[in-house]
Design goal:
The protein is of the alpha+beta class and 880 residues long. Among the domains are: 2-317, TIM Barrel (Alpha-Beta Barrel); 456-463 and 616-743, Jelly Rolls; 477-506 and 517-591, Sandwich (Jelly Rolls), CATH 2.60.120. The strands form 11 sheets. It has an 8-stranded parallel barrel, surrounded by 4 helices. Strands 23, 24, 25, 26, 27, 28, 29 and 30 form an 8-stranded antiparallel beta sheet that branches. Strands 20, 33, 37, 39, 43 and 45 form a 6-stranded antiparallel beta sheet that branches. Strand 6, helix 5 (145-164) and strand 7 (175-180) form a beta-alpha-beta unit.
Length: 880
């Protein structure tokens, strides 16, 4: 309870602080960078989408982004969330945009607001409200009057809201940059001249709203002169805007990738990510935004696609639950510090001096003439773009060894402060509390499972969903209707019911035996999912994006009922002509394999019903569930399709992030205390295509470094702590194809083990670089001793498990002492770190009381546990 009130007080203080952020300042730009209050700035931006977490999580995530070196927070706005019905706006809860912007400002950070209103973002329908499709004559994202009218109303609404709340920089707020449209250049040719007219209109419309800060368009080479065109991609170091008067911005640095149901999990190595960022600033870039810095969760039905999973972790520096992903977060933090050390030199000159150091090695030098014509403020980047070999290069009389595919940053043009390929940040191993599953195989991410029961409940109730038509809202028409035209995306689900008469003769039976052909229901083309019921029984399912379905069926003499339950699994979020996209069935639906020919059901009379009966009755809410006729669930009644399940459970102790483990289920949706945590599906990734090791060297793509082959793409589903009570939490599951709720478990997530390795030859700590007080602003190194930094999440303290200064063997969780080892290692590390949330250890002979082996380069390797007062030893290890 004390923690609850403490959190409430902190939120209240943040609200009060949000009244004043900065002294009002203007934002303009020149060819080199943004000018903030008249000064050029080099900016690191962190992508955080406010609806993909809860307001209670926002301060924590924003603070971690700031600690990681971000000066800017970037977010889209989400039209379909803010205007779910035409003219009816929603800015509450997770969609409280004003509150989010104020929290960013109260944290001392700037905000980059990408209004769109098309956002892509793997978000349902790319952010467009589905009601937009129903406006007569509308065509999205082109020179179309109905669309432009609606788009202008929404963009104006957002800008005016920010103006009213005084959130632009010149009003003392944090917003320094805006975006109109999004990646339109990828599809502009599809719209011809109307597309070019539209982009000119959109730019002019946006600027005339009077926001008073610069506007950008990403991936828009024909952006007007008064709009900054920007780059999106894995690498943007070669990007040039369409005018020499514009700075070089990177609006989306894809530091990971999204995931589809049944897909592998993509990971982008931090060495390559850091290389891309360093190269961008090396070659003249001035603003870089991580997409995503925190990805979060696609709660409810917000995930786009089709077929994008509920998790939007994105392999980001802050994971889906708000925990640091190490070493990605730490290595990038060091990079950001190194770039900040160079900022004065980077903005002092219009363009760098280029120096060729070798066939695939080069330097870019930023140096300004000071008073009397002498050079001052010198920073340099040395790059080796060879993918395989270390390069030894000579620069300004000094020799530097450059690892392959790396950049070394020299803030003073002499000493290396950082190399993108040399990771000194700690690695974190995340713990999941459970004892349900046992060890399987080794992988990079090791998850420890602890003592204690993990099953969420031993007592469940069930309720069968009605198959077919069940309320007066149903209607009948001849023919097959397009799915989205009927549902208006009010539900994933649409029922189609028809009845036909068939006479099975001896000729039919003889034909089936003779030909080996059996009756089948054939659908020419469908998306995303269909469940086929014949005479009340589930006959089979189809999955795909406009694929054919051929499903053998058992027919009866006389009447036969066919029920098709079509589903969307996230609406299309990318591509041209989105208003023409949809779901359900195309072409003909036929009964095939009959002796007298196919029977076409397409023109039959079909009865339609939108949604599930349980959805309409809201049996997943605290009030609605009391009105349903639930029955006790027995073990022999599980694995039943189209079933609702409910139970009550207690929240795990502590404040760690929580997830449901739904690997025992099939496909469906889940709610906790009425909050829709999202779709779930236990589709498994292909058995092949994953890499046992990931080589960061060379250009990255989303298939380069993948994991999770042969396993379900997602089994854990985030339940925000703010959605939970201490006890008696309602969990409701709708299961489509059959699963066992008795095996559902709830698990707390935290960082449990941290490891780090730092050599005595590592670069001096970035904290020891100081700026002189002289007028030239030069920098110097105060202390060249390398350091190791260790830290646990708030509320946890370090407990040393292994330490060796010398030449230790092995890797994290498998360290061992080598022939060279300082006997003081464990005591020194324990004295500096034990019981602390974070600590710093110097890596030198002096710190450890002498040289354990002269003539050899020594390394400090440490493994520690992050323990709270309630921690106990794990009973066994499960490997994810």
């Amino acid at each position: 309870m004390m923690k609850f009130w403490r959190k409430l007080i902190i939120l209240f203080i943040l609200e009060l602080a949000a009244a004043h952020y900065f002294e009002p300042f203007n934002v303009t730009y020149d060819h080199r960078s943004l000018l903030i209050a008249g000064h050029r700035r080099i900016l690191i931006s962190a992508g955080i989408h406010y609806p993909r977490s809860t307001p209670e999580m926002w301060p924590h995530v924003i603070a971690k982004a700031k600690e990681g070196g971000a000066q800017v927070i970037e977010t889209y706005t989400f039209w379909n969330a803010h205007e779910p019905l035409k003219g009816q706006y929603n800015f509450q809860g997770r969609y409280d945009l004003v509150k989010f912007v104020k929290l960013v400002g109260s944290s001392g950070l700037f905000l980059f607001l990408r209004i769109g209103p098309y956002v892509c973002a793997e978000w349902n329908f790319g952010g467009f409200p589905v009601w937009l499709r129903d406006i007569p004559g509308i065509e999205f994202r082109t020179d179309n009057a109905p669309f432009k009218e609606e788009m202008q109303q929404y963009v104006t609404k957002i800008v005016n809201l920010m103006l009213e709340e005084k959130l632009f920089s010149w009003q003392g707020g944090p917003i320094i940059l805006l975006q109109i449209e999004n990646e339109y250049g990828d599809f502009e040719e599809s719209y011809g001249k109307k597309g070019k007219n539209y982009i000119q209109w959109a730019a002019k419309m946006a600027v005339e709203l009077g926001a008073g800060v610069p506007w950008v368009m990403c991936k828009q080479t024909d952006a007007p002169e008064f709009i900054i065109d920007t780059c999106n991609g894995y690498y943007c170091d070669g990007f040039k805007p369409n005018s020499k008067k514009k700075p070089i911005f990177w609006t989306e640095n894809w530091d990971g990738w999204y995931t589809t149901w049944g897909g592998r999990l993509p990971h982008r190595p931090v060495e390559d990510l850091a290389f891309a960022v360093a190269r961008f600033f090396q070659r003249g870039g001035s603003l870089q935004n991580y997409y995503m810095y925190f990805g979060g969760t696609n709660f409810g039905r917000t995930s786009g696609g089709p077929f994008y999973i509920t998790s939007y972790d994105y392999d980001a520096p802050i994971d889906e639950y708000g925990l640091l992903s190490q070493p990605k977060w730490g290595h990038l933090k060091d990079l950001h510090l190194a770039i900040r050390l160079c900022e004065a030199a980077l903005v002092a000159v219009d363009s760098p001096q280029y120096v060729m150091l070798g066939p695939q090695q080069e330097a870019h030098v930023y140096q300004q003439r000071g008073i009397g014509g002498n050079y001052s403020r010198c920073s340099a980047f040395l790059a080796n773009i060879n993918e395989h070999n270390v390069a030894s290069v000579k620069f300004r009389g000094h020799v530097y060894s450059l690892p392959p595919w790396s950049v070394s940053i020299l803030p003073d043009c002499k000493n290396v402060a950082y190399n993108t390929a040399k990771v000194g940040a700690q690695t974190s191993i995340k713990e999941i509390q459970s004892n349900l599953h046992h060890p399987s195989s080794a992988s990079q991410h090791v998850l420890l499972f602890r003592n204690g029961p993990s099953l969420i409940s031993k007592s469940w109730m069930r309720l069968d969903e009605s198959v077919g038509v069940w309320i007066n809202g149903s209607f009948a028409v001849h023919g097959i209707l397009e799915h989205l035209n009927v549902t208006r995306d009010s539900s994933d689900y649409l029922w189609h019911f028809t009845r036909y008469t068939i006479y099975i003769s001896a000729d039919d039976i003889s034909f089936w035996k003779r030909s080996g052909v059996s009756p089948a229901l054939t659908i020419d083309s469908m998306r995303d999912v269909v469940h086929i019921f014949v005479n009340g029984q589930l006959a089979g399912s189809g999955v795909g994006r406009w694929v054919q379905v051929f499903q053998p069926v058992q027919l009866l003499e006389g009447y036969n009922d066919v029920v098709l339950l079509s589903l969307t699994v996230g609406l299309q979020n990318y591509g041209a002509f989105l208003e023409k996209d949809g779901g359900g069935f195309r072409g003909q639906i036929k009964l095939t394999g009959l002796s007298n020919g196919d029977m076409n059901l397409s023109g039959s009379s079909w009865i339609y019903q939108v949604g599930l009966k349980g959805e309409i009755q809201e049996i997943y809410t605290l009030e609605g569930t009391k009105k349903a006729s639930w029955l006790d669930l027995t073990v022999d009644a599980v694995e039943h399709p189209l079933s609702w399940y409910k139970t009550y459970f207690d929240a795990p102790d502590g404040m760690e992030p929580v997830a449901l483990d739904l690997r025992s289920m099939g496909k469906g949706q889940a709610w906790v205390n009425g909050h829709h945590i999202g779709r779930y599906w236990t589709l498994s990734a292909p058995e092949d295509g994953c890499q046992s090791t990931c080589d960061y060297r060379g250009k990255y793509d989303s298939d380069k470094c993948t994991t999770n082959c042969g396993k379900p793409t997602q089994v854990r589903y985030h339940v925000p702590r703010s959605w939970l009570k201490e006890s008696n939490n309602l969990l409701v599951i709708f299961e489509e194809i059959g699963g066992n709720p008795f095996e559902i478990s709830i698990k707390s997530h935290t960082t449990h083990i941290i490891c780090a390795e730092v050599s005595e030859s590592h670069y001096p700590p970035l904290s020891k670089w100081l700026t002189s007080d002289s007028i030239d602003g030069n920098i110097f190194i105060n202390d060249t001793t390398p350091e190791m930094h260790l830290h646990c999440e708030p509320g946890y303290a370090i407990s040393t498990a292994f330490a060796s200064y010398g030449i230790p063997h092995g890797r994290c969780q498998r360290y061992s002492i080598g022939s060279c080892h300082s006997s003081n290692s464990f005591n020194v590390v324990s004295e500096l770190c034990e019981g602390k949330q974070e600590c710093t250890i110097g890596v030198s002979n002096a710190v450890f009381g002498g040289d354990p082996c002269r003539g050899s380069v020594k390394t400090l390797a440490v493994e520690a546990k992050c323990l709270s007062s309630k921690d106990s030893e794990p009973s066994f290890v499960d490997v994810l």
